[in-house]
């Protein structure tokens, strides 16, 4: 009996270890030979622990499993109450375009042989035959934009580092993943770590960097463990080190664990933290691409940006750029969370309307009540109203609606959400997480909390003050923590003025 079961943190939190234990015990009891492969997750979190039995080369799913559901698996598979049918045929899987996450949930994350058998290392091999300028050109032509939040073109960033002078250059992977409702970075690090390693090695070849770091948040112990082991195995196999795949070229990397502060996801704050300093934002210029880690030219890229590089080199820039919408090329792993019937990771070409993701893919709210608002892009993202549901998932399209995609996390709220409280929370979050370097954020966020409390107490005149404060924070903050906190605040006010005691016209 060949069984696949995730050992991803989400699956474990939902009881995967108890299911694994029950499976081993039951197989022993019945004297059935068991081959149990622990994988990453497919991303259908509402079905976790999702167990898959391989039969005739096809995987049949069962979930969400409990230990008590295990014995029946040995009797009648298809009539099992948790039987879902072939996993690849499930609507959630069939409607996706899995490029970055093609192997996640499919292979044993730490088996380099399986990684290679499923297309891994093909991109690195191709890159080893190219010049640095050709590598950068390929990334530029793919249209890949940073998945960490700002959507900055990855090729342009790499080109700046390639052309920068410096005795040592670095690739720094931003795995701080602090946005609410996001888990794509964690999922790929736990489910397909070699993909990130390969992407970083290609980034090194493209820019002349020979050292890399993954800045990984301490709240992700499973990802830390998997990534550290994957790096050790890649080094032992010559995928990292002084002689990449026997080419004579060098790139090596290590994992560094951050102590957990939202602002340490901001790239300059991250670099300070990586250098052992306090995680406080640096003024730009100089850009990290020119003076980054230890003052040297540094690429700082998000996990998903880097983990998407191998498929671009495996299949070609034109293949990747063929997916998507306008200047949003390729695919985006949307992370669906909050009050939803089906939560999880859904990788799709850019362009799917927000309403389709919320109503069809996520199946609406878990509570069954109507959707009130959807926050897209983490704690700094705007609340989108149902009237904006036809907005296609794309950088410019969201920008045109006063929103942002950020790291592509969407958090759904039903009609019971208190939008004034959500606005107050946004200000409070900013006050707590502020690095304190600039006044509009450090002081402004505290005043924002107070102003929203005045509005709650019935002081209608404070609404104008709130709008004014938000303008100041937007224009005067040094980084996007203070600069973007006005997005959730003002979008809540704009869409739900009654809850702020304001007339609709005053909020527009
Ligand atoms: C307050 C704040 C928090 C951030 N947190 C993250 C994060 O957790 N992960 C991330 O990749 N980028 C984060 N960013 C964006 C980074 O500063 C940077 O733009 C990104 O790592 C660049 O990589 P990319 O071009 O691949 O997106 C954050 C930015 C700000 C202002
Ligand atoms: S906006 Fe806030 S987090 Fe950003 S530099 Fe200013 S004080 Fe620090």
Explain how this protein is built.
It is a single chain. The protein has helices at 9-13, 16-30, 91-94, 112-117, 122-128, 132-142, 154-163, 184-191, 193-207, 221-236, 267-274, 303-315, 317-321, 354-361, 395-399, 419-433, 439-442, 444-456, 462-476, 480-484, 486-495, 504-507, and strands at 2-6, 35-39, 51-55, 58-62, 83-86, 170-175, 211-217, 252-258, 298-302, 324-325, 328-329, 331-338, 344-349, 371-376, 383-385, 409-414. The strands form 4 sheets. Strands 2-1-3-4-5 form a 5-stranded mixed β-sheet, with helices on one face. Strands 13-12-16-14-15 form a 5-stranded mixed β-sheet. The chain is an alpha/beta fold. The protein starts with a strand and ends with a helix. The protein is built from 22 helices and 16 strands. The protein is globular, with a radius of gyration of 23 Å.
Summary keywords:
508 residues; alpha/beta; 5-stranded mixed β-sheet; 22 helices; 40% helix; binds flavin mononucleotide; binds iron/sulfur cluster
From the spread of the alpha carbons, the general shape counts as globular
Main sheet summary? 5 strands, mixed
What is the rounded distance between the termini?
Answer: 62 Å
Low-confidence stretches: none
Strand proportion: 15-25%
Bound molecules: flavin mononucleotide, iron/sulfur cluster
Structural classification: alpha/beta
Number of helices: 22
Helix content: 25-40%
Supply Rg: 23 Å
| Number of E strands | 16
Strand order of the largest sheet: 2-1-3-4-5
Average residue pLDDT = 96
How would you concisely characterize the structure shown here?
With 508 residues, the protein is an alpha/beta fold.
